[in-house]
Write a structure and sequence with these properties.
316 residues, Rossmann fold, D-amino Acid Aminotransferase, Chain A, domain 1, Dna Ligase, domain 1, 3 domains, 4-stranded parallel sheet, 25% strand, disordered C terminus
Length: 316
């Protein structure tokens, strides 16, 4: 059976994956979610039924025909100026997320898997609970607390939510000038070292080592050297266990490797834009995604992983 790909025609990761599928001869049907939201039709049931479909023009996709789905649901509701189109985007995103979560098909990724990534303080608590070494951090709008945290060592400021944002170093003077009415900020202890990005796809663990002179190697204009990397066996096993607990099939894990050889976990991205790493890896990540979708049968239960419990002291 074919795989269904749900995404935007302007998403470089989706475009890259579809090109890789074409080269490999891997059978997929692709749906441009933008077209579907703007002028398509959909009829989705919870629980899913054999008659569920999505339709654009004369093209109709019966969802029961697909054993697997690769979905990158980038929600553009907030960008719509036309109120009617905005409502259609909201309805479509809500419907697709609910359907994918309830489906027995293999979904990369179930929409709610790893959702704590959208709140970095919660995300870091969850990663710590999973046994990873996570740098100390602080989220507050209290100026004195921020300055005190920075006085204990170098710090970086990161995006508080799930939106993409460059990480940068800040000092005590910058934090002393912070205006509390700007809202809380998320600062984290700076870990000196090199970056390791790990893509985990089912049983496959594909690591890439990055060397650059920047705090954030992803920033525009930064020169980066990519090379393949081998993780310690214990860390690979830990990642596999964490993926199961979070219900993830594909994730991009970010680590800092310090001078002492310690791996510090910064983030687990449940919707990784993996294409730059795949290019450096000769397409290995795309092939692993295809293999996973091709070899996995439909799931017997829901898309939820085993519950990842936080330590009692961290629960409200």
């Amino acid at each position: 059976m074919k795989t269904l790909v749900l995404g935007l025609d302007c998403d470089p990761t989706i475009v890259h994956f579809l090109q890789a599928c074409q080269v490999a001869g891997f059978a997929v049907d692709a749906v441009n979610v933008r077209e579907l939201a703007d002028h398509g039709e959909w009829d989705l049931s919870i629980p899913p039924s054999a008659d569920d479909y999505i339709k654009i023009g004369e093209k109709r996709w019966i969802l029961d025909d697909y054993a697997g789905v690769y979905a990158r649901l980038i929600d553009l509701t907030w960008k719509q100026r036309d109120e009617r189109i905005k409502q259609r985007w909201f309805a479509l995103m809500t419907s697709l997320r609910a359907w994918l979560q309830a489906s027995s098909r293999v979904v990369i990724n179930p929409p709610f898997a790893g959702s704590h990534n959208s709140a970095k303080p919660l995300h870091e608590v969850a990663l710590t609970a999973l046994g990873f070494r996570v740098p100390p951090s602080l989220t507050t709008s209290d100026r004195a607390s921020l300055v005190s945290f920075a006085a204990q060592g170098p710090v970086i400021v990161k995006a508080l939510g799930g939106s993409r944002g460059n990480t940068r170093e800040v000092d005590q003077d910058a934090l002393a000038a912070f205006m509390p009415e700007q809202g809380p900020v998320h600062v984290q202890r700076l870990i000196e070292g090199t970056d390791v990005r790990v893509h985990v796809i089912g049983p496959d663990v594909i690591a890439t080592h990055m060397e650059s002179d920047a705090i954030d190697y992803r920033a525009r204009g930064v020169r980066v050297r990519f090379r393949p990397w081998t993780l310690p066996r214990q860390l690979s096993a830990q990642l596999a266990e964490a993926m199961e607990l979070m219900g993830l099939r594909l994730a991009g894990w970010d680590f800092k490797l310090d001078a002492g050889g310690l791996y510090w976990c910064l983030e687990a991205n449940p919707q990784p834009g993996y294409h730059p790493y795949d290019k450096s890896a000769g397409g290995e990540i795309s092939r692993a995604i295809m293999k996973f979708l091709e070899t996995c049968d439909r799931l017997p239960a829901s898309q939820e992983g085993r519950r990842c419990e936080l330590p009692a002291r961290d629960r409200a």
